[in-house]
Amino acid sequence: MVEGSMTQGAGQGPEVERTATLRDFRVPAYVHETGPYAQSTHPGDVVPPAEETYPEGYTPTQRDLPVINRGDTVQVTVDPASVPAPQSATGQGPLYVVGDVHGYLDELVAALQEQGLLDAAGQWCAGTARLWFLGDFTDRGPDGIGVIDLVMRLSAEAAAAGGYCKALMGNHELLLLGAKRFGDTPVNSGAGTATFQAAWLLNGGQKTDMDRLQDHHLQWMARLDAVEEVDGHLLLHSDTTAYLDYGHSIEEVNDTVRETLTRNDADEVWDLFRKFTKRFSFRDEGGADAVRSLLDTYGGTRVVHGHSPIPYLLGEVGSEDGEDDSGPVVAGPHVYADGLAIAMDGGVTMAGKLLVQQLPLNV
């Protein structure tokens, strides 16, 4: 099965105005404003399917996503309301996951407050609750570094309260790390010569983020895990089976990703980035089998992912004429692939919704 080859999301228009159209995929204008939230330097704390092939000319530097017709994805109606999750016998609090943020700090704070995880001052107030971010903190939106600072601070505050706030590696973390480390160094892209710097700019890189990027941000990103299993939920960023290329256990995958970043070889890191940009592995015919290959290998009963915006999975995207500026309607997570996959990217970059969801879902 061939997965989609493009990086995710829609571009951002002038200033911070978001667009629901598919037409504007230009590099967004740099935005010189930051959120009012405090910063911190605390670190955040089977048999596989047949080998996949890349489309001819495949490269993750392509910036456009196709419109996916409604008939292209198997849809499962879901009530986004969660099953109440009482504290377990081990004293752990309820489990929450956050979809792609992409620099939208204000929207993130509002969504966390709506779920009762942050107080009015933006401080952790959820006690022993457990919070997982599914990756992609920067690019396209106005304050990616502010988002990282917030997640790092919440990691310390949640731990002090007996809970935790943790995060996974997204393809945009790999992209930002590569742009900072390797800049214009040529890499073998699989479709000719490319550079991390060009790919970063093409996919919404923000100059204000790069200017504010510090060593502790880089160290924090480079230490992020790629996969985790929590309460039967297999958490990962991308809707791809490419994780199987990096190990047969969660620990092996995470170790392999970290070792790749530690070796600091531009071509190796590019190949990792390229594979993590793949998408749409779980939709269409054979999608449920792709999910099962991950569950059989790493454990869990459901995959929970970000990366591919729900509006694209459902075909709910803005019109090409630009006249409809209402944006896509995203009520909550999208459950599909015979109920085995939960998509969490609500399309905040295209005027959708930044999703924070308590698990398990009531389906």
TrEMBL record:
Classification via Gene3D superfamilies: 3.60.21.10
All residue ranges annotated as the Calcineurin-like phosphoesterase domain in the record: 94-310
UniProt xrefs under InterPro entries: Calcineurin-like_PHP, Metallo-depent_PP-like, Ser/Thr-sp_prot-phosphatase
SUPFAM superfamilies associated with the record: Metallo-dependent phosphatases
Coiled coil spans: none
Name of the featured protein: Metallophosphoesterase
Lineage, top ranks: Bacteria, Bacillati, Actinomycetota, Actinomycetes, Kitasatosporales
Domain of life: Bacteria
